[in-house]
Amino acid sequence: MLIRPPAVAGEMYSIEKGMLKKEIESSFNHPKGPKSFKRQKVIAAVVPHSSYLTSGPVAAWVYSRLEPSNYLIIGTNHSKEGPNFSISKKGMWKTPLGEVIINEKLADTLASESKILDYDILAHENEYSVEMQLPFLQHKFGDEFKFVPIVVRNDFPDEALLESCMSLGKSIGKVLKKSGETWTVLASSDFSRDLPSRLAKENDRDVIRSILKLDEKNLFSKIAAKNINMCGYGAVATTLAAAKELGAKKGKLLKYATSSEITGEDVSAIGFASIIIY
Q: Are 219 and 230 in contact (CB under 8 A)?
């Protein structure tokens, strides 16, 4: 069986199992973290993917709400290697907490259903945006879930990319509805980066409003108009389209914070948001 080793263990989260568990627990108990669990029915969510030290407390908010499910995780192709829309269809991904198995049947169905989704291993090999979500899911659900990883290349928030994201999102929604299984879609994305905390917040406010309204067109419009450096806008737009196909009506912001607010280092900040869609 094809096994993908962790690409960023020891860099963005601890490579040692016990330390990693402590990092995740510290994210929940952090002053910016949720500190408690409140499960609810969630169709999709937006969750950050920076190091657990900087984004973990915000990411924990989404994971405090999730119910047992399988997870389709849509991340960002930071390296821009491989196709614009890449799916990994086989094997398992390893983290310090164990292995997570890809749902090959659903991945194959998605690749067949969508005209723009390509099977590609290279795009996933060193990409961390999907990987960063797995230890949180393993910590909460053990090995009681399977997943499907997709990564999206963002070159420019133009109409062509938007149409492709919406098309893929609708295909995802249709396939998940027919699967007979419980699935949640996660968009892995950070928000504004390399800005003073105040400016990052200003930029992200309008973007978050678009997400809460499930308006992927307005999301792209805001990013293009303000030249906002948000790495996962393609992943988020795809997730919004999928969520609406699955019956979602609105989003809710659980937590927003910048890296400066979490670490106390106000040099240049990254914006993080935890948003649920239902």
A: no
